[in-house]
Predict the structure.
Amino acid sequence: MSGELTKRLNAEIDRRRDDLVETTRELIRIPTLNPPGDHYRDICDYLDARLARSGFTSTFVRAEGALGDSEKHPRWNIVCRHDGAAAGDCVHFNSHTDVVTVGEGWTRDPFGGEVDGDRIYGRGACDMKGGLATSIIAAEAFIAVMPDYRGAIEISGTADEETGGFGGVAHLAEEGWFNPERVQHVIIPEPLNKDRICIGHRGVWWAEIETKGRIAHGSMPFLGDCAIRHMTAVLAEMEDSLFPALASRQTAMPVVPEGARQSTLNINAIHGGLAEQEEDYTGMPSACVPDRCVITIDRRFLAEEDLAEVKGEMEALLDKVAAGRPEFSYEIRDLFEVHPVMAARDAPVVTTVGESIREVMGIDPDFVVSPGTYDQKHIDRIGRLKNCIAYGPGILELAHQPDEWISITDMTESAAVMALSLAKLLASD
Ligand SMILES: [Zn+2]
């Protein structure tokens, strides 16, 4: 690719700087909070009108009947498409439109889209309305420079990524939107930093573990069986054997941050015995031996591990505890699981975006893997489309934080990388 082309693309992006800022602000001002999943139709209507300006046609897809979908909170998604002058590959930019709860500690209006210097503030500025706006500007700049391109560009806005993506990308994948015969390259503009390409993520297993006991009067605990004491033994065994074993299990996956380059386990919640009472309850607790104790676990596993073995390891631990405690019984309930996903380092979208980062910024990109999952899992597992990455502007650590912001300079540089990648993938000659 000539430097001349990069220059022309950059000029088109510079001309659109105000448009990039305005588009980001308008997206932030639509408070698409999830849960519960507010304003999905409104943000799809906005994207429809916004992209119609540059010749895209839209399809609205409601994930009817999907997890989370209801008449009160319908899961609306949109796929906007622009066709080139001849047949060729389709490059698809996928962004989730939902944002997480605002939380405490803000000094800016979370849905105001305030601009201060190089920053735009708001819930979702970084994760990932800035990335969505960046992909729109990149596509428009590319089309202006290369109107006779081959193939097609799609930009989708999808629901529910923050709650698992079942009413969003999973639904689109089930409906064939990510079939490799109709889409060849996918870029998800999640905020991974403008010089980093994320090729996948670790696996996840969420489960509940319950220890069982027998209720009795608290003054005569020997007549019952304390489920919390059983759980304490489970937790002690985890401390003694499981956590050290997980820490020693290192992966060849380039996970960032580096602390996540191993197997991990989080205990999300623990509950046993009497339910917590309402705040206005002024009475005393009752005297009961707890008959159940439940923990929720979040086990992240590596490409080198097998999910059946991960589950088997936990069962073996519980059986070991059971061997030393005559009354002990337990139950494991699966909640959620996702296998690790990783695009090949030589996949076309990986190498193309890597070259574009080098040409636009003059630096070598980092190839990374995310500690947590995102919508690539559905594109990979349901859509069977492996040529997929996350690449977008924004500082990962700002996601879900108070005073979340995105840098306008990062967005324009990232737009240049995306536009140049389109030119490489969809060149007419
Ligand atoms: Zn995100």
Summary: The first strand starts at residue 57 and ends at 62. The chain has a mean pLDDT of 96.
